[in-house]
Amino acid sequence: MPAGNYAPETPFSALVGTTLNGLWCLDIVDNLQIDNGYIFYWGGLNFNPAIIPTAGSYQPGEVTELWLTNPDITNTNGSDITVTPTTAGQNCYDFELTDSFGCTYTETVCIDVAPEITSVQPADIIVCQNTGSVTVDLTAKDDEIRNGLVASDYDVTYFNSDADAQADMNPILTPDAFAVTTSTTVWARVFDNVNSCFKTEQVNVTFQEVNYNTVADLELCDDLSADQVETFDLTSQIAGILGSQSAADFNIAFFNSQADADANTGAITTPAAYDNVSNPEAIFVRVSNAQDQDCYQTGQFNIEVLSAPAIGAVSDVSDCATNPITNQLDLVLADYDAAVLNGQSAAAYTITYYNSEANAQSGASALSSPYASTDQETIYARITDNATGCFDYTSFNITVEVCEVVIPEGFSPNNDGINDTFSIPNLEQYPNFELTVFNRNGSTVYETKASNYEEFAGVPNKGALAGDGLLPVGTYFYVIKYNDAETEDVASWVYINY
């Protein structure tokens, strides 16, 4: 196409007022057939300066900015964040900005995190004394502080203050011979040679003497087997042995020999339930510092099984009922003390009685005297040594007998206090008896029975003379019905005289 001016199909005047900003599209159409399809090339496209608008500048504005969510971010203060990485290595965090045109920009910030120094605070260095000057080897704690870290990768140095340890200033020059005169604290600095990181650990040097406080011997009473073997709770001595020392700071073990206590071998495995092997027996105790077993003191106490007091045998008791109606026998318990003591001093022992073996063993619910015992009852007598508290007990059986009924042949109701009534000893042991008295004519003059028994005193309560003074002197007849299948009724006479 030859150079020249070419006009558009549509005049540019139609574009007046059209916004110039933005994308322009120019469509070039070859309307000439003679050029065989060759159109043209741009050697330069120049616009009339009159139609070019004044040049402008466009500054986008900031709308929002934020750090994208990350679990490592523990605090946000504007565009500042605090992060706590949970893994070693590279940890990255994204900051996002959005401008006023809606464009978003992201910047990633990465930090390299060295592996955590897994050192630990070591157990205290124990100086087994209360006062004085001593040197300790701090370096003996190096491996404990490293807690498995490779020694060639981690250096341990010691300082007199945490500030010095943090600043790596004024290290202790002779940590293997560190002089101390009282409990003190130093700080270990663990330095990672690979990543140039460090961590500090507190190291305590503690003066702590171990004391064994003397305790009384343990004594137990022998049981009824009399085998001189009992089960002792050795741990009951711990509080006394420690005294004012804290149980948390010390270990206490019990042994059968001094040599074992010193060597800390062969400790008694069940100190809370230990059966003595001899009587008496020495028990050896080792009190060790809980953090340093080589800091210890030993002591001993004895355990002893005390013999039960000797006890005499009490013969079984068989007697007539004191109260025939209830078939009970009143026992004066002190009457059996002499048999229980069997010649021993009454002042040295206490004797008590019980109606069950369990109470005799526990000492609960002792019987009072006199005691109304029943037939076939067992009574337990307990003797207690006043000095030791040890005791033994024995038993005896009670038989309440049905005794012979003794019927007198006469009485004299004259109020002289002698034979004033028709008294029939042991009649009341029959709970259903009946007594009837007749005169010589066969008339009933007196009746009574077990439920309302009153001894016949010569005054009739039946017949024409009932309640009318004393009966005349003479012979009277009576019938006693026992109403007992094993006892024969009685019919006989009695003479009344004044």
Automatic annotation (TrEMBL):
Name the InterPro entries on file: T9SS_type_B
Q: Which Pfam families match?
A: CHU_C
Which NCBIfam families would you find in this protein's record? Bac_Flav_CTERM
Q: What is this protein called?
A: P/Homo B domain-containing protein
